[in-house]
Every structure is written in structure tokens, then in C-alpha cells.
Amino acid sequence: MLTFTTAGESHGKCLIAIVNGFPAGVLLDESVINDDLKRRQGGFGRGGRMQIENDKVCILSGTRKNITIGSPICLEIKNKDSKIDVLPDVTRPRPGHADLPGIIKFGQRDARNILERASARETAARVAAGALAKILLAKFDIKVLGYVKGIGGINSKKVTKDPNEILKNRNKSKVYCLDRLAEGKMIEKIKKAKKKGDSLGGIIEIMVFGIPPGLGSHTQWELRLDGIIARALMSVQGIKGVEIGLGFIFSKKFGSQVHDEIFYCKDESGFKRKTNNAGGIEGGMTNGGVVIARAVMKPIPTLKKPLRSVDIITKKPESASTERSDICAVPAVTVVGEAVVAFEMARCFMEKFGGDSIKEVTRNYDGYVNQIREI
Fold first, then answer.
1. CA nearest 209: which of 333, 345, 335?
2. Helix pair 330-353, 225-234: axis angle to 10 deg
3. Rounded-to-integer distance, Cα 14 and Cα 82, Å
4. Ordered domains of the chain (ranges, CATH)
5. Which residues bind FMN (predicted)?
6. Which of these, 121, 39, 43, 119, lies nearest to 80 by C-alpha position?
7. Which residues contact 138 (CB under 8 A, 6 or more apart)?
8. Which residues are annotated as a binding site?
9. Is the pLDDT of residue 240 over 80?
10. Would you list which residues are annotated within the binding site for NADP(+)?
11. Interval 357-369: pLDDT, tens
């Protein structure tokens, strides 16, 4: 089984991701991973920490001559701003953060011991692991792309089904949005939030192109792919809601208006849909369409003009603590969302077509594709 785990604190020495179950025989290009790490640090609205760190991965194990050998892959990202032992205690928990629940759960009197691991800095390790998954999926012409749909109530109406167009427009945008008109309005809203000492959230969208039908399963609740994707996205710091396909719009429509009708072409294309309201997943399984997931990120809890709180030592009313933080990290979250969805898609892919080497995986995949054509 393809799995990963992360370790490290925001201001610790480094972040680590350990990936198990990755097949042998795959060439790993560190620059591909570093490109995603750099993109995670970008986007209009990021804070001062991004001016300090220059995230780069070091592959410590699991490869020889840059080719995977089937053993665990250890990815290291060093922190330049490493000062965890000299940072001051934090006794005024921030509303909306892990500070107070973590203090209560772990019996602490210093929120620093909670926030260092709860910090979204941890997502750099997840992006590195997700980049490995994308390298694997690319072997089978599967692409996972994330971008911004909305920030602070300003939403993009642009829709495209072309992955190359998505890449082109997203990479030109300061907020990783496909809509230039919406981008300008988003940037202005972020500037206003900064002047007010406030923060903004938004909506991201992740699309998976080229995924075959049959990943996931209807047979057990934990095997349903939509549930797997929802859990992965909900695990990202700041995410408070997830939808697949039309999502909540389903509640406003008749069934005849939303279900994707099935057609059959006698050529090699086989079964087809003219619409994709289901977001590429039916009954917990991919149906051959583009997988579409959206997630909502709340505004960042750390504010320059902090909200009311209570000092956990004195129990007296105080303003919440302040940390160096972003005004808006929605663009960065598109990269994290892309990574976690990519990893889950790769994990389900390996569960179905798995082998110890990329040759074995390819053979299994090709056999399945031929099987589909015979149906």
C-alpha cells in the first residue's frame, strides 16, 4: 500500500515526509518536487515567513542514481528559520486555531507546544509527498491540477476542460486563478484585508484528468473514493468544507437535471457522458470522467488586530496572541490540495494496479485498459 507520514515543527530543524510502497524503477527529478514547493510558497497575500524560507527537497533514501528502488523514500525540507527552543511561550490562544483544544488535550500551559506542529508549515512535507505521487501518475498520463475559484466572496466563473489551458492561465496569475477579471478584484480585496489587519479565506478546485474508471469501491464505506478525497482535503489546515462535482447545488435541482446520462460509442471510446455533474465519481468509484473536487478554506486565525481571548495562566481577558502570518493563503492551499488529492489517487491506483516495480504496474494497468475495451 502506498502511504506517507510527516514529521517536524514549524520552527524546528526540518520537515520530513516518509513515503512507503512506491514502486521501483521510477526516475525522480528533485526539480519537479521543488517546483511544487516553490509554488506553495507563492501567491499574493503570503506573509514574511515566505521571504525567509526557500524550500528545497533532499531525497535521503529510497533511490539509487535518482531511480526508486522500492524501499521507503525519505524527503527532507530544511527550515532556515529554525529557532523553536528560543521562541517565547504563547499563553493567549487564538480563536479558530488549534491552540486551546491542543492545550487541553495534551495538558500543556504553553500553546507553542501545539502551534508548532499544527502550523500549515507542515504542508510543505505533504506537497513533497504529493509531488512523488504526481510523478507516478504522470507515467499513465494522469494530471492533477489545482487552482483558486474564489477569495473573500469574489468567485471566478471561468470553466475549462483543457488541462493545458488551466496550467497556462493559473501560472500567469498572482493568485493562481484562471479568471483575469476576478484575479484583479481578489488582489484588491486582499490589500483591503491587510490594511484592516484582517485575513481572507476562499474556495479551491482540484481536477484530475486521465483517471481510469474503477478506482475506489462501493463495497465498504472506507473504500469509497469520494469519502477518501473528502477526508484528505479536510485534513489540510484551514479547510472547513468539501464537495464533489456539483456538490451542494444538487440540493437545488431535480434528479432529471443533474444525473449524467450514459451513451455508448462503437469506436474505442466506449461508454461516454455529455455532462460531468457527478465530478467523475459514482457509487464511490471513478466513472472515467474528470474528477472534480472543491474545498473551502476559512480565513487564517492569526490576525494583526487580534480577537478577544483569555490568558491560560492568569485566566484574565486578553487579546489573542499574534504570530507572523499570511493575509490570505488560498493560492498556496491549491498546491496542498493538489498534493493530497494526487496522493490519494495514486494510492487507489496502486491498490488496483499495484506491483513492486513500475514495469509490473504498467503491465497490470495495460491489461485492465484492454479489459475495459472488451466490455
1. 345
2. 140
3. 8
4. 3-374 (3.60.150.10)
5. 117-119, 237-238, 283, 298-302, 324
6. 121
7. none
8. 40, 46, 117-119, 237-238, 283, 298-302, 324
9. yes
10. 40, 46
11. 999 999 999 999 9
